[in-house]
Design goal:
By secondary structure, this protein is an alpha+beta fold. Helices cover 30% and strands 32% of the residues. It has 5 helices and 14 strands. The model is unreliable at 2-6 (pLDDT under 50).
């Protein structure tokens, strides 16, 4: 219980008279034991000054908490655009994680069902059996020595053939076109290296064809700025003729990342695609 009591107090004036001045007693009393817990005595303006000071101190403490601590993020008016974008990206990542967890759970359920032998056997009906391909009898014959020797020679000859290994390495990879909206032409230089040449428009953005790491960026007089990117499965892409570059060595990029721009009347844009140190025809892997 809080109580306030007005008590008169006598004091002398300049001419020796006595005047009565009012003072206030503020006390906090425990109603159970009737004992005073806290007490304060003062004049009206003194108590008012203390109350205003206490209010300002509490307000300053809250202001410090909301300015210098993460509590400011809970205020809707203080939510910045970059923080909102971060929340959106986290929401998208959470959705991707949920999809991956669902797919993994289905895979584990299938494996568990196979291990428990609870997958019901599938019976082939007469209609389905009639649609089965009839295997010729000669395909069941054992291979001759000449056939085995031919297969061995063919496998040894094609083991390091890039034309065979490159499509296998690119299986599951979707390449993004490096330039769009301009005419492209495939050519072969004096060294026999195929490349794509495009005449850029007024300002044509150049994009990375796949995710990877920037190996190098350099400038030459005849080609302008050149960017080299290392991709998974030993693929390397090279972009020449850039008027401006937005990446540097060591940067991580994804498919479609803007790595620079090519401008009209500056340099022709040249694109090369390599795999394991051998040049490839870009049109065989990228839809321009």
């Amino acid at each position: 219980m809080i109580g306030a009591r007005l008590k008169p107090r006598w004091s002398h004036t300049a001419n020796g008279d006595f005047v009565r001045r009012q003072r206030y007693d503020i006390s906090v009393t425990n109603t159970a034991s009737q004992q005073q817990v806290f007490g304060m005595r003062g004049r009206r303006w003194g108590l008012l000054t203390c109350a205003v000071g206490l209010f300002l101190a509490i307000g300053g403490l809250w202001l410090i908490l909301f300015i210098y601590t993460p509590m400011r993020n809970i205020l809707p008016v203080k939510m910045q655009s970059d923080l909102r974008n971060e929340y959106v990206q986290l929401n998208h990542r959470l959705g991707d994680v949920a999809d991956a967890a669902r797919i993994n759970q289905q895979y584990l359920d299938n494996v568990w069902a196979i291990l428990r032998d609870s997958v019901p056997p599938q019976e082939v009906t007469l209609d389905q059996a009639s649609e089965l391909e009839i295997v010729p009898l000669d395909s069941l014959l054992e291979a001759s020595a000449r056939e085995r020797s031919f297969v061995a020679r063919f496998e040894n000859a094609e083991r390091f053939n890039v034309s065979v290994l490159s499509p296998l390495a690119a299986d599951g990879m979707t390449f993004y076109p490096p330039v769009m909206g301009v005419a492209t032409e495939e050519k072969v230089n004096d060294s026999g290296i195929p490349y794509i040449q495009a005449t850029p428009a007024k300002s044509s953005p150049i994009s990375a064809v796949y995710r990877g790491t920037v190996l190098n960026t350099y400038f030459t007089t005849g080609k302008g700025i050149t960017v080299v990117i290392q991709h998974p499965n030993d693929f390397v892409s090279e972009y020449s003729g850039l008027a401006d570059c937005f990446v540097s060595r060591g940067d991580k990029v994804v498919a479609g990342t803007r790595i620079g721009i090519a401008q009209e009347n500056r340099y022709p844009f040249l694109f090369e695609l390599w795999h394991s140190g051998s040049p490839l025809s870009p049109r065989d892997y990228i839809l321009f």
